[in-house]
Every structure is written in C-alpha cells, then in structure tokens.
Amino acid sequence: MNLCLHEKDFKLKAQWSFFATSHGKTECDGIGGTVKRLARKQSLQQHLDRQITTTNELFEFCKVNIANITFQHISKEAVDSTSLTLESRLKDTQTLPGTRLFHNFQPIDDLGMIEARRIS
C-alpha cells in the first residue's frame, strides 16, 4: 500500500524489486558502524557533562567531525507524525498470498492495487 502512495507522497513514481545481491550488507552498514564507533569514542573521552546523550548532539558531532557524509536530523515529532500516517494507511492492508515468490512490485493506482511479477 505504501508503494502505491509513493508518487502522491514524494512526486516520484516507484517500483520495488528484490535481488539476491541486495539482501546482504552494503556500504551503509559500514558507514553506520563507523559513525557509531567515532561517536562512542568521542563521548567516552569527554567529561560526563559533555558526552553525546541526545540525537541532536549526535547530529551536531557528525556534521562537524565526519567529512564526506551528509547527515540529516529527523525530529521525534516528524517520526511520530509519519508513524501515525503509516499506521492509519497500513491498518487495513492485506498480505499478498505467495509474496515471497515475487521479485518485482509496481503500483497500479493509489488505492492499493499492485502488479506483482516473478521476474522484472
């Protein structure tokens, strides 16, 4: 259902394809691990009153200390708002029988109709 509303939400058409190579680790896993390691090290080296304890402090640390990566801070309010939207959107959705047999999903309309293909 959320895929069907992607164009309405973001003004971009979308489809979803699953590939065997995409079910493993990617570059973002290594980047995330590096960010956590650097932030943890920085926090442990600080006095108790200057440790990284909030998402905003982590965001500011990353912006200043980690080059070549663009960071975005998403507020709790934005997450909560999106969660409410998704919760109401997904509460009445139904599972597509045999979902695991399909490789590609394309929205047909914004009412929740999708085309599911075994090949793309």
Automatic annotation (TrEMBL):
Protein name per UniProt: Uncharacterized protein
UniProt source species: Araneus ventricosus (Orbweaver spider)
